[in-house]
Amino acid sequence: MTPSNSRHHYTVELHASAERVPQVRRIVAAHLRYWNLELHIAPVCRGVVELLTNVHRHIGPEARCVVELRWTGRHLTASVADQGPPLPRLESAAGSGLSAVAVLSDSWGTCATADGKVIWFTRRVEAARKTPLTSRGPLRSVPDAKGTPEEPPVVPPEPRPEVPPEAASDSEESPAASAVSPAVASCLV
């Protein structure tokens, strides 16, 4: 296996043996995680596995192939190049092979090369926003944000107006009536 990669491009050359398929699946998944494309791991890995399985089945387990991933920021392209001469055909919608690749992708195709062919598929993808894996702590409530409430200031009671002694002797008010304002006292009589 001969890997080659850059920031948004990865290429690996390998034999299309059955033992390599799970290994390539893990490599593809790791690159998609690195590129922050976790939502696309399952469909892209399945598409790449289908293409590798086709190389193994139709050309042979010792066939050399190249798996390539490219992400432009908007489109992810996965391809498998091999040295087999016949271009594949979409024969049925049985759920495997190229029919599975067609379902998993936005577009796909084949291209003859000087020494074989390339089968590719693309998906429209954008990187997910990174969110921190640790919590930021509990949200602060209004009392927390303002701090602890202060005790209201103590307001001294208003002094009662002093009643001139001659007014107090003239009226025979009840003790309750003398504690209220004159306007309220007029209602009590």
Span between N and C termini?
108 Å
Task: State Rg.
Answer: 41 Å
Helix vs. strand class: alpha+beta
So how many helices? 7
The helical percent reads 25-40%
Low-confidence stretches: 173-180, 183-189
> What sequence of helices (H) and strands (E) makes up the elements?
EEHHEEHEEHHHH
**What does the average pLDDT come to?**
76
In this structure, how is the largest beta sheet organized?
6 strands, antiparallel
Reading side by side through the largest sheet, how are the strands ordered? 1-2-3-4-6-5
Number of strands: 6
The shape is rod-shaped
**Strand percentage:** 15-25%
What's the arrangement of secondary structure elements?
Elements: E1 2-6, E2 9-15, H1 20-34, H2 41-58, E3 64-71, E4 75-82, H3 98-104, E5 107-113, E6 116-124, H4 142-146, H5 165-170, H6 175-178, H7 182-188
Antiparallel strand pairs: 1-2, 2-3, 3-4, 4-6, 5-6
Helix pairs in contact: 1-2, 2-3
Write structural notes for this entry:
The chain has 189 residues and is an alpha+beta fold. The protein has helices at residues 20-34, 41-58, 98-104, 142-146, 165-170, 175-178, 182-188, and strands at residues 2-6, 9-15, 64-71, 75-82, 107-113, 116-124. The protein has a six-stranded antiparallel beta sheet with strand order 1-2-3-4-6-5, with helices on one face. Helix 2 (41-58) runs antiparallel to helix 3 (98-104). It is rod-shaped and about 125 Å long. The N and C termini lie far apart (108 Å).
